[in-house]
């Protein structure tokens, strides 16, 4: 049974359908929260709250809207709210030009270790990606995860992070640069 | 060249074409990784429903509310259709809920 059918049944008061629908998406919800927050217990907490809202507010889901995308957006918003409360996601705009001496040299792209264009990621590489994402500053991690893993456009990233579009671009740019640096050796010298 | 590659404050020491290529590879890698979902190792749905009950909202009662809303909606539609037909209104369920006359 696809999501559309399940949503219709949930709206009709079918609790088993709600259980099936939420269970189907719980891992995806946890994953996006974990990628944004970088913390297991916080991701669990956000995931549970997302599922609660997904159930209690399902009437707000508009016709033709993907339940998965709608639920993910709830998880993203809750995660970002938590980051703001923790003080690691700031509201101030980064639109001001960066002075040359403020540029972290580690942010520069490292072209010595090009990433392989592999079709199927090994488990090891996926774990490395998750671990590398955790090492990024929260603002950069959030920007890259939203932009490159979940396909939000830069304007949406800016809206979600409550910063200017230029600041969002900067965060994506710096996040990618840091990720390239963190991932390249592992990608270039895979074990086994 | 992606919009992000031209972010302000970026270093001008790297050629844009090679940077864009590296970005493209990274995006492809991240895109593939995005489809790999982790499990929290716990039944988050069950915990979420328990959380809902913990707030005093019994799941069963939520269902009852939804049911009631549907029936209410049917009742409204019924009343509207009666109004549209300009017939004198009559009680929908005469009898036991009516206050005693006199």
Supply the key terms.
heterodimer; A: 192 residues; mainly alpha; B: 102 residues; 3 helices; disordered N terminus
In short:
The complex is a heterodimer of chains A (192) and B (102). Chain A is an all-alpha fold.
Report on this model:
The complex is a heterodimer of chains A (192) and B (102). With 192 residues, chain A is mostly helical. Chain A has helices spanning 3-11, 15-37, 40-56, 67-86, 123-135, 138-149, 154-161, 165-188. In chain A, α5 crosses α8. By secondary structure, chain B is an all-alpha fold. Helices cover 55% and strands 0% of the residues of chain B. Chain B contains three helices and no strands. Chain B has helices at residues 16-34, 44-54, 59-84. Chains A and B meet through α2, α3, α5, α6 and α8 of A and α1, α2 and α3 of B.
Produce the secondary structure layout.
The complex is a heterodimer of chains A (192) and B (102).
Chain A: H1 3-11, H2 15-37, H3 40-56, H4 67-86, H5 123-135, H6 138-149, H7 154-161, H8 165-188
Helix pairs in contact in A: 1-2, 2-3, 2-4, 2-6, 3-4, 5-8, 6-7, 6-8, 7-8
Chain B: H1 16-34, H2 44-54, H3 59-84
Could you describe the largest sheet of chain B, including whether it forms a barrel? none
Sheet/helix structural class of chain B: mainly alpha
Distance between the termini of chain A: 41 Å
Largest sheet of chain A: none
């Amino acid at each position: 049974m696809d999501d559309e059918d399940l949503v219709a049944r949930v709206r009709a008061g079918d609790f088993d359908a709600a259980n099936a629908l939420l269970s189907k998406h719980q891992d995806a919800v946890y994953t996006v929260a974990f990628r944004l927050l970088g913390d297991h217990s916080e991701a669990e907490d956000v995931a549970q709250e997302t599922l609660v809202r997904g159930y209690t507010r399902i009437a707000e889901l508009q016709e033709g809207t993907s339940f998965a995308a709608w639920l993910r957006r709830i998880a993203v918003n809750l995660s970002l709210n938590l980051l703001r409360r923790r003080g690691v996601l700031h509201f101030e705009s980064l639109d001001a030009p960066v002075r040359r001496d403020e540029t972290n040299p580690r942010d520069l792209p490292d072209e010595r270790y090009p990433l392989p264009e592999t079709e199927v990621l090994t488990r090891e590489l996926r774990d490395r990606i998750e671990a590398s994402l955790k090492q990024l500053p929260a603002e950069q991690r959030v920007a890259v995860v939203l932009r490159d893993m979940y396909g939000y456009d830069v304007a949406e990233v800016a809206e979600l992070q409550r910063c200017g579009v230029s600041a969002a671009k900067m965060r994506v740019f710096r996040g990618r640069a840091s990720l390239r640096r963190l991932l390249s050796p592992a990608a270039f010298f895979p074990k086994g | 060249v992606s919009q992000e590659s031209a972010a302000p404050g970026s270093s001008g020491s790297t050629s844009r074409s090679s940077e864009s290529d590296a970005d493209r590879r990274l995006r492809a890698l991240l895109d593939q990784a995005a489809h790999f979902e982790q499990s929290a190792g716990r039944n988050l749905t069950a915990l979420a429903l328990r959380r809902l009950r913990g707030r005093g909202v019994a799941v069963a009662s939520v269902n009852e509310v939804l049911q009631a809303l549907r029936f209410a909606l049917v009742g409204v539609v019924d009343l509207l259709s009666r109004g549209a037909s300009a017939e004198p209104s009559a009680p929908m369920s005469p009898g036991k809920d009516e206050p005693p006359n006199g």
